[in-house]
């Protein structure tokens, strides 16, 4: 097999793994948007906040330590214990549920029936607020996140591909784990929404608020539920991304990549979010490989690299022109 | 005490005591008084019609009963006790189901799934027990599905059970909406113009279903309808509204001969 094709395959596989990340963040967006019509700009910051909280709890950090010390002249930073990863994850889930409740109680309950743009603005405010709270609670330094996910080259894939193709693929164990976990998460969500009472109620609310009320569904409850699930998805994304590149502010910027994913997949489609994320993950890696660094077709096109910064947006733009509802979104037919 | 009020209608149905009692309800939207100091009751097992010209406040009245609107004045008594202000979902959980004048269905779901949402109140509320006791959950699912299918059979919509509701014609949507409300096995069923926009044949079907529901399950029904023929055929008692006021209340015959009602329908100038 020609080398270019093998490299290309390796690149595509790695792109797929990166795409899982985008899918996860986009999924958080879609869940909230479907159920409440809110485009949650804070989804990325939620991932950052979740990851910071997880690290903080794991390390036994005292929340708001700086604030406490500055106010009372104390000098405390740590409780002096560490918390096992699994327990810390559970506690973080509790924090995300509390956050979901607070967001609805103090923000969105007061904005019922407002224009989508107002709800969107509220989430921008929420993003800044949450970012500030995260810093205040856990400190702004870059943190390493370690919940025991295996990292480094997968020897088995490396060995097997070397035997078959004479070229060993470099696939990170972390990416494989992330993919498996994301797949489980999505399967879990689908099972939840189709086979549980709450899942049914959630789909009902996503479809029609008035009808949902008339069959006895509490909208407030569903909104807290959906924000909790989005918080959980953010936590999973935060763990994966944080384990890969450390927990730092840039984590919240993956939300920006979710936007083109949503344009591709459609804002209301869960399969769309997943497929969209994968397409963009693979697409941008392959594009960079072929045309960014000119390694395909004898290097006829070589854009000099860094295409990953814009590829997703250009692809999304093309979609906006030719298929504005996205791959999986419902066709928009204006009734007149 | 309730027994003393019991009576049997000419067609052999038993009408019981008061289920719902509306006392001096006043509802305002800004300066507009949609309902002005209206009182009436609905008795167990009866079909109670609310009629009146456009904009009379009929839908508003139904919305007050189902908790979508909160009246500024007056009390709603349900099953012998005054009801504190409630959210629509709480009213629904008390056993009051409804349909809407403008149809509110889950357009993206199949007919069966729509009807199943009417069963949500019968499903166990705890996520954890649901996932732990998987067999129990499966049994519960089966029972609720069977109940939904019975309603579907009853309303003769088996043929479209798997069809997404968004694709159905108007008349069938109205029927699916009724099915969803019935699936909840309500104590009180509120129907806002169930036959609006239907052709004669569809109207006959719908009339028959309403009578059958009332007859077979003893469901108390309050319904808004413009078609006088239908109202006179179906209902035991009629409330007539005009400009937010109650101008008549009684059996179809009494109402038909009420001068105020005749005036309102003939468009006699209001002074
Ligand atoms: N949500 C609302 N906000 C403001 N005004 C309202 C609202 N709902 C109803 N109204 C007003 O209350 C009055 C009564 O309306 P309602 O819908 O109850 O009438 P109706 O008897 O059901 O009429 P129709 O036969 O046309 O359905 C009307 O003047 C209407 O404009
Ligand atoms: Mg009306």
* DSSP strand content of chain B: 15-25%
| Strand-pairing-aware structural class of chain A | mainly alpha
Q: Please state the overall shape of chain B, judged from the principal axes of the Cα atoms.
A: globular
CATH class of the largest domain in chain B: Alpha Beta
Determine and state the CATH class of chain A: Mainly Alpha
Q: From the coordinates shown, what is the CATH architecture of the largest domain in chain B?
A: 3-Layer(aba) Sandwich
| Count of DSSP-assigned helices of chain B | 11
What bound compounds does this protein have? adenosine-5'-triphosphate, magnesium ion
- Give unreliable regions of chain A as ranges: none
Order of helices and strands of chain B: HEEEEEHEEHEHHHHEHEHEEHH
Assembly context of the chains: heterodimer
How many structural domains does the protein architecture of chain A include? 1
Largest sheet of chain B: 6 strands, mixed
Helical stretch tally of chain A: 13
Enter the CATH topology name of the largest domain in chain B: Rossmann fold
Secondary-structure class of chain B: alpha/beta
Low-confidence stretches of chain B: none
Number of strands of chain A: 0
**What's the mean pLDDT score of chain B?**
91
Total beta strands of chain B: 12
Molecular structure report:
The complex is a heterodimer of chains A (336) and B (271). Chain A has 336 residues and is an all-alpha fold. Chain A has a single domain (3-322), classed as ABC transporter involved in vitamin B12 uptake, BtuC, CATH 1.10.3470. Helix content of chain A is 68%, strand content 0%. Chain A contains 13 helices and no strands. In chain A, helix 1 (3-36) crosses helix 8 and helix 2 packs across helix 4. Chain A is globular, with a radius of gyration of 21 Å. Chain A starts with a helix and ends in a 14-residue tail after the last helix. Chain B folds into two domains: 1-95 and 187-271, 3-Layer(aba) Sandwich (Rossmann fold), CATH 3.40.50; 105-185, no CATH class. Chain B contains eleven helices and twelve strands. In chain B, a hairpin with a 2-residue loop joins strand 3 and strand 4 (32-43). In chain B, helix 4 (111-117) runs parallel beside helix 7 (170-183) and helix 6 (134-154) crosses helix 7. The relative contact order of chain B is 0.17. The complex binds adenosine-5'-triphosphate (ATP) and magnesium ion (MG). Magnesium ion is lined by residues 58-59, 101 of chain B.
